[in-house]
Structure prediction request, 198 residues.
Amino acid sequence: MAKLTRRTVITAGAAMAGAALQPVPLLARDDAREGEGAHSNVARVRLMINGREHQLSLDRRTTVLDALREHLQLTGTKKGCDQGQCGACTVHIRGERVLSCLTLAVAVQGQRIDTIEGLSPPDGPLHPMQRAFIDQDAFQCGYCTPGHIMSAVACVREGHARNDDEIREYMSGNLCRCAAYPKIVAAIKQARGLLEPA
Ligand code: FES
Ligand code: FES
Prediction:
Protein backbone atom coordinates (compact mmCIF):
# COMPACT_ATOMS: atom_id res chain seq x y z
CA MET A 1 0.00 0.00 0.00
CA ALA A 2 1.43 3.40 -0.98
CA LYS A 3 2.68 5.45 1.88
CA LEU A 4 0.28 8.28 2.73
CA THR A 5 2.20 11.53 3.03
CA ARG A 6 1.13 15.16 3.10
CA ARG A 7 2.46 15.46 -0.48
CA THR A 8 0.39 12.52 -1.82
CA VAL A 9 -2.78 13.87 -0.18
CA ILE A 10 -2.26 17.30 -1.72
CA THR A 11 -1.45 15.79 -5.13
CA ALA A 12 -4.54 13.55 -5.04
CA GLY A 13 -6.69 16.48 -3.96
CA ALA A 14 -5.38 18.61 -6.79
CA ALA A 15 -6.08 15.82 -9.28
CA MET A 16 -9.68 15.49 -8.06
CA ALA A 17 -10.16 19.23 -8.19
CA GLY A 18 -8.83 19.17 -11.73
CA ALA A 19 -11.34 16.46 -12.64
CA ALA A 20 -14.17 18.48 -11.15
CA LEU A 21 -13.05 21.48 -13.15
CA GLN A 22 -13.28 19.76 -16.51
CA PRO A 23 -14.44 22.32 -19.09
CA VAL A 24 -18.17 22.76 -18.59
CA PRO A 25 -20.12 22.93 -21.86
CA LEU A 26 -21.82 26.15 -20.85
CA LEU A 27 -22.84 27.08 -24.36
CA ALA A 28 -24.35 23.69 -25.01
CA ARG A 29 -26.32 23.86 -21.75
CA ASP A 30 -27.63 27.35 -22.47
CA ASP A 31 -28.57 26.36 -26.00
CA ALA A 32 -30.48 23.40 -24.64
CA ARG A 33 -32.41 25.64 -22.28
CA GLU A 34 -33.29 28.17 -24.92
CA GLY A 35 -34.28 25.85 -27.74
CA GLU A 36 -37.58 24.04 -28.04
CA GLY A 37 -37.74 20.51 -26.71
CA ALA A 38 -38.71 18.30 -23.82
CA HIS A 39 -36.10 19.75 -21.45
CA SER A 40 -36.31 23.31 -22.70
CA ASN A 41 -38.06 26.29 -21.18
CA VAL A 42 -39.35 27.22 -24.62
CA ALA A 43 -42.49 25.71 -26.06
CA ARG A 44 -44.42 26.09 -29.25
CA VAL A 45 -47.81 27.47 -28.19
CA ARG A 46 -50.98 27.75 -30.25
CA LEU A 47 -53.28 30.51 -29.04
CA MET A 48 -56.75 31.24 -30.42
CA ILE A 49 -57.32 34.94 -29.84
CA ASN A 50 -60.33 36.88 -31.07
CA GLY A 51 -60.99 34.18 -33.66
CA ARG A 52 -57.43 34.12 -35.02
CA GLU A 53 -54.84 31.42 -34.51
CA HIS A 54 -51.36 32.46 -33.40
CA GLN A 55 -48.33 30.15 -33.23
CA LEU A 56 -45.71 31.44 -30.81
CA SER A 57 -42.46 30.20 -29.32
CA LEU A 58 -42.79 31.15 -25.69
CA ASP A 59 -41.00 30.54 -22.45
CA ARG A 60 -43.24 28.07 -20.66
CA ARG A 61 -43.63 30.57 -17.81
CA THR A 62 -45.17 33.24 -20.06
CA THR A 63 -48.57 34.40 -18.90
CA VAL A 64 -51.45 35.05 -21.26
CA LEU A 65 -51.11 38.73 -20.35
CA ASP A 66 -47.47 38.88 -21.43
CA ALA A 67 -48.17 36.82 -24.55
CA LEU A 68 -50.84 39.33 -25.54
CA ARG A 69 -48.90 42.47 -24.74
CA GLU A 70 -45.28 41.52 -25.42
CA HIS A 71 -45.61 39.00 -28.25
CA LEU A 72 -48.79 39.97 -30.10
CA GLN A 73 -48.92 43.72 -29.43
CA LEU A 74 -52.48 43.38 -28.17
CA THR A 75 -52.00 46.05 -25.52
CA GLY A 76 -55.66 46.74 -24.81
CA THR A 77 -55.43 44.26 -21.96
CA LYS A 78 -53.66 46.13 -19.16
CA LYS A 79 -51.07 45.11 -16.61
CA GLY A 80 -51.84 46.66 -13.25
CA CYS A 81 -50.58 44.61 -10.33
CA ASP A 82 -49.44 41.49 -12.25
CA GLN A 83 -50.44 39.41 -9.23
CA GLY A 84 -54.18 38.86 -9.40
CA GLN A 85 -55.39 41.78 -7.34
CA CYS A 86 -56.64 44.54 -9.65
CA GLY A 87 -58.56 42.97 -12.55
CA ALA A 88 -56.96 45.23 -15.19
CA CYS A 89 -55.83 42.14 -17.11
CA THR A 90 -59.29 40.52 -17.38
CA VAL A 91 -59.96 38.57 -20.59
CA HIS A 92 -62.48 35.87 -21.46
CA ILE A 93 -61.30 32.30 -21.86
CA ARG A 94 -63.96 29.93 -23.15
CA GLY A 95 -66.44 32.71 -22.43
CA GLU A 96 -65.53 33.11 -18.76
CA ARG A 97 -63.66 36.02 -17.22
CA VAL A 98 -60.12 35.15 -16.26
CA LEU A 99 -57.15 37.07 -14.86
CA SER A 100 -54.63 36.79 -17.66
CA CYS A 101 -51.71 37.70 -15.37
CA LEU A 102 -52.29 34.48 -13.41
CA THR A 103 -52.85 32.21 -16.40
CA LEU A 104 -50.01 30.51 -18.25
CA ALA A 105 -50.28 30.63 -22.03
CA VAL A 106 -49.30 26.95 -22.33
CA ALA A 107 -52.26 26.01 -20.13
CA VAL A 108 -54.86 27.50 -22.47
CA GLN A 109 -53.56 26.34 -25.83
CA GLY A 110 -56.29 25.99 -28.41
CA GLN A 111 -58.92 27.47 -26.09
CA ARG A 112 -60.97 30.45 -27.17
CA ILE A 113 -59.52 33.68 -25.80
CA ASP A 114 -61.35 36.98 -26.23
CA THR A 115 -59.80 40.34 -25.46
CA ILE A 116 -61.08 43.90 -25.51
CA GLU A 117 -59.79 44.23 -29.09
CA GLY A 118 -62.21 41.55 -30.24
CA LEU A 119 -65.29 42.85 -28.43
CA SER A 120 -66.49 44.86 -31.42
CA PRO A 121 -65.48 44.74 -35.09
CA PRO A 122 -62.74 47.22 -36.11
CA ASP A 123 -65.07 49.25 -38.31
CA GLY A 124 -68.35 48.25 -36.75
CA PRO A 125 -70.43 49.69 -33.94
CA LEU A 126 -69.14 49.57 -30.40
CA HIS A 127 -70.23 46.74 -28.15
CA PRO A 128 -73.18 47.86 -25.98
CA MET A 129 -70.97 47.76 -22.87
CA GLN A 130 -68.35 49.97 -24.52
CA ARG A 131 -71.11 52.36 -25.61
CA ALA A 132 -72.54 52.43 -22.08
CA PHE A 133 -69.16 53.22 -20.48
CA ILE A 134 -68.86 56.22 -22.82
CA ASP A 135 -72.47 57.33 -22.35
CA GLN A 136 -72.19 57.12 -18.56
CA ASP A 137 -68.70 58.68 -18.43
CA ALA A 138 -67.57 55.58 -16.49
CA PHE A 139 -63.83 56.28 -16.48
CA GLN A 140 -61.26 58.97 -15.92
CA CYS A 141 -57.72 57.82 -16.81
CA GLY A 142 -59.16 54.72 -18.50
CA TYR A 143 -56.41 52.33 -17.44
CA CYS A 144 -58.79 49.96 -15.66
CA THR A 145 -61.50 50.30 -18.33
CA PRO A 146 -60.72 47.35 -20.65
CA GLY A 147 -60.65 45.00 -17.66
CA HIS A 148 -63.83 46.52 -16.28
CA ILE A 149 -65.63 46.18 -19.61
CA MET A 150 -64.58 42.54 -20.09
CA SER A 151 -65.58 41.75 -16.55
CA ALA A 152 -68.88 43.64 -16.91
CA VAL A 153 -69.83 41.72 -20.06
CA ALA A 154 -69.22 38.44 -18.24
CA CYS A 155 -71.01 39.69 -15.13
CA VAL A 156 -74.17 40.34 -17.14
CA ARG A 157 -73.88 37.00 -18.98
CA GLU A 158 -73.54 35.22 -15.64
CA GLY A 159 -76.81 36.81 -14.50
CA HIS A 160 -75.03 38.72 -11.74
CA ALA A 161 -76.16 42.22 -12.65
CA ARG A 162 -79.74 42.23 -11.38
CA ASN A 163 -79.31 45.15 -8.98
CA ASP A 164 -76.73 47.64 -7.75
CA ASP A 165 -75.56 45.53 -4.82
CA GLU A 166 -75.09 42.49 -6.99
CA ILE A 167 -73.17 44.47 -9.59
CA ARG A 168 -70.86 45.89 -6.91
CA GLU A 169 -70.31 42.44 -5.42
CA TYR A 170 -69.59 40.67 -8.71
CA MET A 171 -67.45 43.51 -10.04
CA SER A 172 -65.43 43.74 -6.84
CA GLY A 173 -62.44 42.01 -8.44
CA ASN A 174 -61.90 45.02 -10.67
CA LEU A 175 -60.34 48.06 -9.04
CA CYS A 176 -60.48 51.65 -10.27
CA ARG A 177 -57.97 54.04 -8.78
CA CYS A 178 -59.97 56.96 -10.18
CA ALA A 179 -63.00 55.69 -8.21
CA ALA A 180 -65.43 55.78 -11.12
CA TYR A 181 -67.46 53.06 -9.41
CA PRO A 182 -70.93 54.74 -9.35
CA LYS A 183 -70.74 55.43 -13.07
CA ILE A 184 -69.45 51.95 -13.81
CA VAL A 185 -72.55 50.55 -12.07
CA ALA A 186 -74.70 52.92 -14.14
CA ALA A 187 -73.00 51.76 -17.35
CA ILE A 188 -73.59 48.10 -16.55
CA LYS A 189 -77.26 48.85 -15.85
CA GLN A 190 -77.53 50.65 -19.19
CA ALA A 191 -76.00 47.74 -21.13
CA ARG A 192 -77.47 44.75 -19.30
CA GLY A 193 -80.79 44.82 -21.15
CA LEU A 194 -78.96 44.59 -24.45
CA LEU A 195 -76.86 41.56 -23.51
CA GLU A 196 -77.94 37.99 -23.28
CA PRO A 197 -77.52 36.28 -19.89
CA ALA A 198 -75.82 32.89 -20.19
S1 FES B 1 -52.75 42.74 -13.62
FE1 FES B 1 -53.85 40.91 -13.35
S2 FES B 1 -55.05 41.22 -11.60
FE2 FES B 1 -53.81 43.03 -11.74
S1 FES C 1 -60.54 55.13 -14.73
FE1 FES C 1 -58.56 55.44 -13.87
S2 FES C 1 -58.19 53.57 -12.82
FE2 FES C 1 -60.24 53.42 -13.44
Remarks:
- The mean pLDDT is 87.
